[in-house]
Amino acid sequence: MKILHFIYDHISNPWVGGGGAVRTYEIYRRLSKKHHITVVCGKYPGAKDYTEGSLEFHFIGTDKNNYALSTFCYTIKAFAFLLGGKVKADVIVEDFAPYNPIFSFLRNKPVILQVHHREGVNLLKRYYLFGLPFLIIEKFYPRLFKNLLCVSEASKKKFALNTATVIPNGIDSSLLETTPTDGDYIAYVGRLHIHNKGLDTLIEAMTLNNLNLSIAGKGKDEHKLRTLINNAGISQRVTLKGYLNDKDKIKFISGAKCFVLPSRYEGQGIVVLEAAACGKPVVVSDIPELSFAVQEGFGISFKTGDATDLAEKLTYLINNESLTKHMGEKARQYAKNCTWDSIAEQYEKLLTDVVKAGHG
Asked: Would you say the pTM of this structure is higher than 0.70?
C-alpha cells in the first residue's frame, strides 16, 4: 500500500514538534516495514528531505525563520503538491488544523481526515476577530470528509463527528521497563506554547507553593516563558531543561515526583501516557481530552486556568506519598495497553478498509 500523509508539523520543527508529529513518526516507522509512505511537512530553517527505509519525509513551504509565514506557505504549496499528483498513493491522510486546510478530498483517491483537538472559542481569545475564519473552518471543514479519524472519544464528541473512528495515541513498550525513582521535582514535558499548554497558569501556581518545577521542551514561547519565571521571582525553583532526546526525556520523567500538564486544549496528550508508562501520577487540567487519567485512577484534575486550584492539587499530591505510589502503580497498569505497536495495527486496518471501500 502507498500512503501519502500531509501534516504541517514534524518532530524536529522548532515551533511546534507536537504530539501529532510524534504520532505520525511512531506509527509510520512501524508500517514502513510493509508499506511505502510519503509524509509532506512544512519547511523550517534547516529542514531537508530524508528517507528512512520506505518512509520518506518531504518539506515544502519556506525556510524563512517565521512561523506564521511557514504555515501560510505550507498551505499553498501543499495544495499544489496535492493537485499535482507528484506522488502516487492508494490512500491520502490529512492531519487537520484550521490554519492550513489543503482540501485533500479534491483528489480522486480514498482520503482520511485525522482530527486531534478542537480549539473552539480559544481561537477568538488568541486572535480576536482574526480568529473568526479559523473558527468557521474548524467547525465545518471536517464535515466535508467521508472518512474521519479522531485520537480520542472526547475530540470526536467535541467535533460532533459521530461516524469517526477513534484510534488513540500510544507509547513505546520500552518505557514499561524503566525503573521509577522518587525525585524532588514536578515534571513538565512538551511544547513551549504558553496559552495552549497553560504554562502561564503553571507558573502562577508555582508562586503559591514552595515546590520545585522542571520544564523540558522547546517552542516559540521560550523567551516569554523565561520572562514569566523571572518576573514571578521563582527562577531558583523553576528550571528550563530545553529539548531532551528520548533517552534523557524518559530519565527525566522517571525521576520526577509527579507529572503536570495544564493545557487549555489537547488531542490526548502523549506525554501523559509516557508519564503513566514511567509509573508517575499526573495532575492535568479538567478538559475532557485528559479526563481518562482521572477515570483510570492515576490522575488528579484541576479547574483549567485556575492557578490556585492547580497549586493546591500539586501540593496535595506531593504531600501524600502513599497516594503518589498507588497512583503510579495504576498509571503503569493502564499504559500497558497503549503501545505504539498496537496502535499501528489499528491504524493499518483503518487504512486498508478505506482503500478497499474505494473513493471518499
From this structure: yes
Which sign does the torsion angle of CA 66, 72, 75, 76 carry? negative
Q: How far is CA 275 from CA 176, 264, 350, 356, in A?
A: 10, 19, 28, 38
Euclidean distance between CA atoms 146 and 287, whole angstroms: 27
pLDDT tens track for 34-84:
999 999 999 999 999 999 999 999 999 998 999 999 999 999 999 999 998
Domains 2-170+340-357 and 173-335 share a fold: yes
**Do 275 and 138 meet the contact criterion of CB atoms below 8 Å apart?**
no
Cα 352 to Cα 40, 326, 348: the distances in Å are 21, 41, 6
C-beta neighbour count of 104 within 10 angstroms:
23
User: Which secondary structure element, helix H or strand E, spans residue 139, and what is its range?
Assistant: helix 132-140
Architecture of domain 173-335: 3-Layer(aba) Sandwich (3.40)
